[in-house]
Amino acid sequence: MTTTTHALLITDVRLPDGARVDVSITDGRIAALGPNLPREPGVMLEDGAGALLLPGFVEGHTHLDKTHWGLPWYRNEVGPKLTDRIENERRFRAQGDHDAGVQSLALARAFLQAGTTRLRTHVDIDTDAGLRHLEGVLATRDALREVLEMQIVAFPQSGVLGRPGTGALLGQALDAGADVLGALDPALIDGDPVASLDLTFELAQRHQKPIDIHLHEPGEVGAFTLGLLLDRVAALGMQGRVVVSHAFCLGALPERERDALLARLADLRVALLTTAPASTPVPPLKACLEKGVTLFGGNDGIRDTWTPYGSPDMLERAMLIAMRYDLRRDDELAIAFDCVSTTAARACGFTDYGLYAGARADLVLVDADTLAQAIVARPARKLVVANGRIVARHDTHA
Questions:
Q1: N or C: which end of the chain has fewer CB within 10 A?
Q2: Which residues pair with 22 in a beta bridge?
Q3: Is the same domain home to 86 and 27?
Q4: Are residue 231 and residue 245 in the same domain, yes or no?
Q5: Where is the Amidohydrolase domain positioned along the sequence (predicted)?
Q6: Quick check: is 248 in a domain?
Q7: Beta partners for 214?
């Protein structure tokens, strides 16, 4: 349940730079932000008591439809290959009663409670299940539309070429309300990167949708696929409308080849998403920053047949990003936070984001001295405001 207010004044909070301010909120927007704002009659008052004020967090890549959040523990005995995980999940979902609507709503609410107010989720579009998983997540988006801004990626978990009819289903998913077109490993899953990418870009052009592609392909294979993708971005004028998720290949290439791809990514405004996994190569954060490449963060799956890991706490994900990239200084930890806040919002296209007058009022209050401490200690969320509404207090739904 949310506390609905048309006007709210949060007093005595601290910005990440240390400034002490009040925040005035009207009709879901930050109306003013500064010291000693006037107390107007009829305005709900909330004492921040010196808490640290952060913008609502952004989850750049998750899979709400797959999660077992809140269910009994899933015993994971899947094989080591990507195809093992895909087929294991397909069997589980076909044989069981996993409900993407119920489960996505449970995890989306957990994200909100922990301070995430913008979210991009990939949803399986499958020739066995059709649009069933999408329909469940669309219902979740509708149920939370007043407080959680959600983008849905129509994602072909088995690729677009191997199962006839997948392309048509993806088109139906985009017509039904998916915001972004997904894709998966054109070389190693689809077996024909040219045909796979041609179909993906043709669908995106026809439906006027951006693309977010899972690219797990390693080393030279991944670099080859990435080059083909960038060729199409340039030829079709899709600059600023493509995200490459994972991009493991960029963490395993010789520096000269890697930097040439980074330069093209920057020039074409193609963003990279990383979950900062500990066990695989990752795109180089500092090189991306130096070259002007947008790199942002997300969880990937959370508690599903693929992985027992993940959490709806984006401060935890920021900490894991910082650990993976060996970010230790306070100013470096701020970069990790940007990966789940400002940079993620920009990469996904979430507008009116941040701590400034006119922005959507998505705010998180925590008891921490600094941003770095908030990331490392991950304190309870003292208050979460989403679209001007109080949605959580002290890690409990309001």
A1: N
A2: 34
A3: no
A4: yes
A5: 47-392
A6: yes
A7: 184, 245
The span from the CA of 127 to the CA of 165, in Å, is: 7
What is the pLDDT at residue 398?
84
Q: How confident is the model at residue 184 (pLDDT cuts 50, 70, 90)?
A: very high
Q: Are residues 29 and 116 in the same domain?
A: no
Q: Choose one of 330, 348, 366: the last residue of a domain.
A: 348
**In this structure, what token pair is assigned to residue 144?**
């939370």
Q: How do residues 73-93 score in pLDDT, each as one tens digit? A: 999 898 888 888 888 888 888
Runs of H (alpha helix) within the chain? 82-95, 100-113, 132-143, 166-176, 193-207, 219-236, 255-268, 285-291, 314-324, 330-338, 342-348, 371-377
Q: Are strands 242-246 and 211-215 parallel, antiparallel or unpaired?
A: parallel
Structural contact between residues 341 and 54, judged by C-beta atoms closer than 8 angstroms: yes
227 with 367, same domain: the answer is no
**Within-domain flag for 1:** no
Instruction: Give the residue numbers spanning the domain of 40.
Output: 7-56+354-397
Q: Give the per-residue pLDDT at 389.
A: 97
Q: Rounded CA gap, 138 and 141, in Å?
A: 5
Over residues 170-185, the mean pLDDT reads: 98
Angle at alpha carbon of residue 374, lines to 373 and 375, rounded to 5°:
90
Looking at residue 96, its amino acid is: G
Provide the token pair at 173: 């998913």
Q: Where are the beta strands (DSSP E) in 305-354?
A: none
In sequence order, the β-bridge partners of residue 180 are 153
Q: Kind of pairing, strands 57-62 and 44-55?
A: unpaired
Geometric angle at alpha carbon 334, from 330 and 339, rounded to 5°:
150
Number of domains the chain is built from: 2
Whether 240 and 374 share a structural domain: no
Q: Report the SS3 class of residue 184.
A: strand
What pTM did the predictor assign?
0.96
Helices (H) and strands (E) in the chain — how many of each? Answer: 12, 16
Q: How far, in Å, CA of 24 to CA of 34, rounded?
A: 9
- Identify the CATH number of the domain in which residue 259 sits: 3.20.20.140
Are 23 and 40 found together in one domain? yes
In one-letter notation, the amino acid at residue 313 is D
Whether 200 and 291 map to the same domain: the answer is: yes
